What does this fold into?
Amino acid sequence: MEKTFDAARAEAEIADLWDAKNAFAAGTNAGPDAKPFCILLPPPNVTGSLHMGHAFNHTLMDILARWHRMRGDDVLWQPGLDHAGIATQMVVERQLAAAGNIGRRDMGREAFVAKVWEWKGKSGGTILDQCRRLGDSFDLSRNAFTMSGAPGAPAGEEGNFHDAVLKAFVSLYDKGLIYRGKRLVNWDPHFETAISDLEVEQVEEKGSLWRLRYPLENGATYEHPIEFDAEGKPTAYETRDYLVVATTRPETMLGDTGVAVNPDDPRYTHLIGRSVRLPLVGRSIPIVADAYADPTKGTGAVKITPAHDFNDWEVGKRAGLRVINVMGTRAQIALKDNADFWDGIDGSDALAGLDGMDRYEARDAIVTLAHDEGWLDGIDAEPHMVPHGDRSKVAIEPLLTDQWFVKTEELAEKAMDAVRSDKTRILPERDEKTFFHWMENIEPWCISRQLWWGHQIPVWYGPEIDSEGKVVPGAVRAFCASTEQEVLKKAQEFYGASIPISFSREEGALREHVPPAAYGVDSDGTLGWTELDRDPDVLDTWFSSGIWPIGTMGWPENTPELAKYFPTSVLVTGFDIIFFWVARMMMMQLELTGKVPFKDVYIHALVRDEKGKKMSKSLGNVLDPIELIDEFGADAVRFTLTAMAAMGRDLKLSRDRIAGYRNFGTKLWNAARFAEMNDCRPVAGFDPASVTLTANKWIVGETGRVRETLDAALDAYRFNDAANVLYAHVWGNVCDWYVELAKPLFQDAAAAEETRATMAWVLDQCLILLHPLMPFITEALWGQIAARPKLLVHTDWPSYGAELVDAAADAEMGWIVALIEEIRSVRAQMHVPAGAKVPLIQLDLGPDQAAALERDRALVARLARIERFETAAEAPKGAVTLTVRGATFCLPLADVIDIAAERERLGKAADKLAKEAAGLKAKLGNPAFVAKAPEDVVDENRARLGAAEEELGILRAAQARLASL
RNA sequence: GGGCGAUUAGCUCAGUGGUAGAGCGCUUCGUUCACAUCGAAGAUGUCGGCGGUUCGAACCCGUCAUCGCCCA
It folds into this structure.
């Protein structure tokens, strides 16, 4: 064997080996009555590449999958990709532009979607190859895609996900849980689509607060307070014929339809009910009372633009104000042909100049006009939060449009019930609170997107007809079904079997659905013929990923997978998509199947850089998991992430830490090398309970304990505990102690055979127990150590436990280890050369200790570098005394002893003991403690006091001897 | 403004009522036949402050301070 593990070479070989054996196929290694264990990979974006967050998320899932597989469960780890509507459309559009292609609008919908599929086939899903580097053991033969089976999907992309999404939509639509409505939505002017609340990020910007003077109508004036006394009472007034409003968005003033003041604001109450004349526009708009106006902010008077602000929309509704939209889909000022706007006013040259301007150009222009025309009161710098699209990074614009919404209130109630009744557990508990907080305040979910890459909404429109069969001009009738045949059937039922109906193949308007011009009305006003026009919008990506659990298992068909693996066992995911994904999956699965999608949800935190900063490309602090794997090996990266995965806390990743766990792999590797050099080969039928030597019994017992602790940790998703118990066992128990203890035993003919067999067994157990965390190095060693019937990935998980612990052997090893450590410590403090061998003199020894020393003399001799064992009644002059539970020894170091150092050592040890004894004495002297504390705690304290006092006595004697020297 | 959380060794962090821990870093010593990606020994803590509950508090409760994150 080499001195170190060649991760790069071995990992590739092992990955090929697993592939060749199809090692991760669902159900592999399942026992006869196997329990299903199913875990869903949160589908990464098809555009994505593996980042640290994935690496963390996947590592945890892979540990669970491998652990359950080895335990003989029927494991399905379901992988797949998300079509990621906006993100993917963005990537492909950018590429088309870079290649000098025509834009998507010129290309047309069908051609563009074909381009996206082409891109997906070439460069989509590189992330899945990267997952392989990490060791992800998902079943790639079941790889799913949220757009599989959609119209235009090329060969190889068949699948039923598209059907499932449409059926889910139709099902919710038929239940009245999906509706279309004209509402103010978050509009992304870059992508020209609506987005949901969750896709909006608030970004603080340095902005200004502009104060604008709106003249009072009919020459009215009022007294505005300008000076105040110490109590805040006005002492001076000025006469104003205008009202000053403060705004962060002067450009929206074109759409103002009112001014609000607080009903309790004495400055303005007398103005309520009067009107101001909107500058530039010339519209007369009312001054209304609304608590939304905050007297402490700005001037206390706020302009109301119901069409362009969510708060103003509410105020407008309460006050019955008009809604006048003054912007287009690219957030440009849109006044031309805007009937609403021109209603009740006359044009002006200034307005004509503003038409078509970008919103920010318009802002500057309007402020300049205000200044020139004298209605700019002033400008204050004020930072404020501006909503931005999370993909486009441009400021979103509230816009009044027709969109599709999911009624989330009822669905949320069911999801909350499932969590309250523990049908689904959310861990850690804190995130359950977050879940409830959001669900209780849930808003309707806007699911329509004005994009092309996605599931087109399965709704077709035709003309509305009244009860007498007459066409209602301008009204629209919607038909929802998952196929054209079904739509046709529904339409035919509605309009009558004799009406010729066909489908319009033209691309409809982008958002506003008007009844198709292409229909005929007979002379009696009834419908003669019609075309049906499909809604051009697509569904929010999260609508389709919302049915990921059932969609990947063949729903709505009643497949064997659904029967077996659904509801799934556990969902492992980051806190950032609790609302986007987890909550929505809960709602949709419950509504569509009546079942929760998963029994447990384990929410993990974010991977940050070593300074605690979020990793981001712009900060340049991104650690690329693939680079780290190249440098340190996948096992080291995985183990690091696992060890740092304390529940609910962000983890700060540093290269030092990864290097440390790379060293851990090397340590394991060298332990195996040691075993090989000493001819330790796995013995068939080896029974760990049958060993006879203390050291062997001890390590066997430790292994049993580790198995139990490890399983308990994984069972509770305490991944860091799992990593730490393994680390401490392999490095501490096995490498530091057992390997060293074995060396003298190998020299002893009577002990060698059993020890070799035990060593081989212990190492095998280390490989098995470590495999879920460090799959590559353990699989490599497993194959290297011996020919095996099965790969390690399929080796049965052990069931032994603490019954392997032999209390006597445990106590004896504990004592021997303490003795060795004490001797080493004294040697180091007395500056005994590391290589020098010294005699050990036993002064006072209990019977158990004497027996132990007799049995394990060779171990002590080697590990503490003792040249011979002697017995004496009293310590010789210049000897250093040492105490180990129930025994007193000394080291005759007359030649080398440093009296000052020894005095210091004894003094320090005695002080520490005296302090401890005093504390214990005080505790035991407290009657309340003795009366109320549990008996075993009291006993334990008594025992500790006894031991401390005894040892203290010995140290005092040693101090006295030293003083007499 | 509302909600959630954090504060423990130089650093990064475990630790849910009974002897304060790990890794890294640091100091000293050491290449004894698995491993220098190593070994041995060592130093370092009013567990953020104050108050309370308790026989007993890093842990439970209250409060203050500081710092995060999410939502407005």
